Amino acid sequence: MIALHTPLTEAQIRSLHVGDEVSLSGIVFTGRDAVHKYLHEGGALPPGVQLRDGVLYHCGPVMLREPDGSWRCAAAGPTTSAREEPYQAEIIRKYGIRAVIGKGGMGARTLAACKECGAVYLHAVGGAAQVLAERVKRVRNVYFLEEFGAPEAIWELEVEDFPAVVTMDAHGKSLHEEIFERSRAELLKRL
Fold first, then answer.
1. Considering the domain 2-190 in this protein, what is its CATH number?
2. Which residue is catalytic, options 36, 58, 123, 176?
């Protein structure tokens, strides 16, 4: 298990390879469809959202409001990342993101941006939303709550020992593509 702490450096990210297990601590920002589309169309990040050398998590967390007005994360599972493929490469380049967390992997454009910019795709376990929420130690802030609603807002989370696996690295390797090619080759043998 490789321990990572935000902010991340390009050297740290380029030292990672497909299959590496990581444990992430520090600040993570969530971002789903509405945020990606908004940024792609020229929208600005709100003051306080620092993505450079940071982590963008494809997640629509379930948040509960505490009596003191603070937020508590009840579920923080990854959402399917493929929906963000039309936007992700540009957002990695523009904002200097070092890691994207999600599930299911992404495509060739995102992989190319990872290689070019020194970023990785981290696969989080789907179906473990409550377990992953236990890794969220504090909800630091929320942005675009009124505009996009709770699942699509940008949540600023402080995480500790968040587990993930590198499935797309900064060397142009994609575990998702390798599995697809092996599966396709096996299928062709049976036809």
1. 3.20.130.10
2. 36
Q: Where are the alpha helices (DSSP H) in 51-151?
A: 85-95, 108-117, 129-133, 145-148
Spans of all domains in the chain: 2-190
Dihedral angle over CA of 110, 112, 118, 122, nearest 10: 40
For residue 138, the cross-strand partners are 158
Looking at residue 177, its pLDDT comes to: 80
One-letter amino acid of 110: T
Instruction: Look up tokens 């495509």; give the residue.
Output: 107
Angle between helices 108-117 and 85-95 (to 10 degrees): 10
Q: Check if 36 is active-site.
A: yes
Question: What's residue 15's pLDDT?
Answer: 98
Q: What is the mean pLDDT of residues 42-63?
A: 96
Q: What pTM was estimated for this model as a whole?
A: 0.93
The DSSP-derived string for 136-151 is: EEEEEEEESHHHH-TT
pLDDT of amino acid 190: 79
Name the residue type at position 120: V
Paired sense of beta strands 99-102 and 71-75, if any: unpaired
Mean local confidence (pLDDT), 167-184: 85
